Amino acid sequence: MNNIADAKQFEPIEEALSAVGYQVGFGNEFETEAVAGALPKGQNSPQRVPLGLYSELVTGAAFYAPRHLNRRSYTFRIRPSIMSAEFEPLDNVEFRTPPLDVPSHPGRLRWGPLSQDGEPADFLEGLTTLCGGGSPSLHAGLAVHFFRANRSMENRAFSNADGEFLILPQQGDLRIVTEFGVLEVEPSELVLIPRGVKFRVELKGAFARGLVIENYGHPWILPELGLIGSNGLANAIDFQAPVAHFEDEEVRTEVVHKHGGKLWSAYIDHSPFDVVAWRGSLTPFKYDMRKFVAIGSTTLDHPDPSIFCALASPAHEVSGCNADFMILPPRWLVGDHTLHLPGFHRNSVTEITSIMGGLPVINGVDLNGSVAVTNHWCPHGPDAATFEAKREASDSPEHINDLLLIMVETRYPLEFTRAAIDMKMGTPATHGGSAGYRKRFPNG
Ligand SMILES: [Fe+2]
User: Fold this and answer.
1) CA of 307 to the centre of ligand 1 (A)
2) Are 254 and 265 in contact (CB under 8 A)?
3) What are the tens digits of pLDDT across the range 306-339?
4) What is the sign, positive or negative, of the torsion defined by CA atoms of 358, 362, 366, 369?
5) Which residues contact 322 (CB under 8 A, 6 or more apart)?
6) Does 7 score more than 70 pLDDT?
7) Rounded distance, CA 10 to CA 148, Å?
8) Which pLDDT band holds residue 426 (cuts at 50, 70, 90)?
């Protein structure tokens, strides 16, 4: 694979030659060049771009979007992206877009972690949709997909006009090559790929699995902090953007593009990862969820789970978000005469939760990587045995060790795929410990 090291006529930049470099700060204005002098000075569309590159703009927001929400970058690349064969439809029966096969369900559904068994599949081939709601054509809603891969994407790139990809590896390290540079990712890190940006997922081991949240709505932003103040939750400085890194390769490459709920395929005769320099605010990011600064009550009771919001896709201030992405990291639980558990509740938003890691294996059962979906206003809470144990437990401070949970909330009810229902763990009727709660009234 060619990169800066092969461009001997240029003076290489040390950072690009090292393993992987990053720039930091969510929503920042960045500029980066893999070859000294590749960035035009003082303008973005010079008559002749340095080094014979092409200037190409990628936008992620309306041209007139407010400055703090505007996202766009100029890429300076070896060839313009317009060079492509015609797109042809591509089948991928398990990577789906709403409307889905199975209507929205009012009970809880849960899936165990994906096994390592299965046909050879790269990241794209191994995407299996669980659930979704809304519509990419209406820029509303989301879908949740499992991914399971046992080989790297080779001579293949993917981009998505329907939604942003929030990739959550749960097992196996990844090297994600994007037009904007390379992200080295491990479980407990998340990756955010903007709409329309090409990327390729490589495995660093034999197997990888995890989740993908495909956001059809407002691009992810950091939530406002309100009375929390100017620090806390996911700090902007902890988001890492790649530095420019390019491949100057003449190799037949398939570009798979998702558009209108369908996959499309076209071929080009060179690597699409040929951006030698770029400048702007639209970029992929990675973020280490272990850096999340959790905030909670120090007196009694539980704040709403919105206190764990790391990324927000706003929609409506009353009926709810398009999507909120929450991180529940290892942390202290404190509170006088307070149940050290989330209590029983019914919420106006749908919840998707997943155990990313840190849960002890009990009786040979490993639920790390499992996912639960609770549609809106579906009652849920602790099972009877757990509730009884916590009801009698000391209210002394308690540390949650290692356990890393994520949760996504959305205002939309979620439908399911047939494939997801067929591999469902448990049944809606029996899951969730819906029996066994003691009646204590009126004696307490
Ligand atoms: Fe809940």
Assistant:
1) 13
2) yes
3) 999 999 999 999 999 999 999 999 999 999 999 9
4) negative
5) 134, 140, 141, 142, 215, 216, 217, 218, 313, 314, 315, 410, 411, 412
6) no
7) 40
8) low
Q: What's the rounded Cα separation, in Å, for the pair 394 and 177?
A: 49
In the reported structure, the alpha carbon of residue 438 is separated from the centroid of ligand 1 by a whole-number distance in angstroms of 21
**Exposed e or buried b per residue across 208-238, where buried means at least 16 C-beta atoms within 10 angstroms of its C-beta:** bbbbbbbbbbbbbebbeeeeeeeeebbbeeb
Name the one residue in this structure whose structure tokens are 């001579």.
Answer: 155
Average pLDDT for 62-76? 97
What is the 380 CA–ligand 1 centroid distance (Å)?
Answer: 6
Catalytic residue among 259, 302, 345, 431: 302
Residue type (1 letter), 391: R
* Strand order across the 262-268 sheet: 88-90, 262-268, 253-259, 156-160, 199-203, 174-178, 181-185
Query: Rounded to the nearest 5°, which phi and psi values hold at 362?
Result: -115, 125
Quick check: bond before 99 cis, omega within 30?
Answer: yes
pLDDT in tens, 132-175: 999 999 999 999 999 999 999 999 999 999 999 999 999 999 99
| Pair 144, 222: CB distance under 8 Å | no
Residue 42: strand pairing partners: none
Q: Which domains, from first to last, does the chain contain?
A: 4-99+120-289 (2.60.120.10), 291-422 (2.60.120.10)
Report whether pLDDT(5) > 70: no
Q: Give 2 or 204, the one with higher predicted confidence.
A: 204
Q: Contact 269/84 with Cβ under 8 angstroms? A: no
Query: What is the rounded CA–CA span in Å between residue 5 and residue 14?
Result: 10
Distance CA 291, CA 42 (A): 36
Q: How confident is the model at residue 435 (pLDDT cuts 50, 70, 90)?
A: confident
Map tokens 């798979």 to a residue: 256
Residue closest to 207 by CA, chosen among 284, 143, 116: 116
Q: State the DSSP H helix or E strand holding residue 390, giving kind and residue range, or none if neither.
A: helix 384-392
Q: Is 340 a catalytic residue?
A: no
CA–centroid distance, 123 to ligand 1, in Å, is 30
Specify whether the CB–CB gap between 405 and 324 falls below 8 A: no
- What percentage of the chain exceeds 70 in pLDDT? 94
pTM of the model: 0.94
> Ligand 1 centre from 302 Cα, in Å?
13
| The one-letter amino acid at 322 | N
d(CA 44, CA 77): 12
Calculate how far, in angstroms, residue 169's C-alpha sits from the geometric centre of ligand 1: 23
Q: Is 50 helix (H, G, I), strand (E, B) or coil?
A: helix
Asked whether residue 14 carries a pLDDT value surpassing 60, the answer given is no
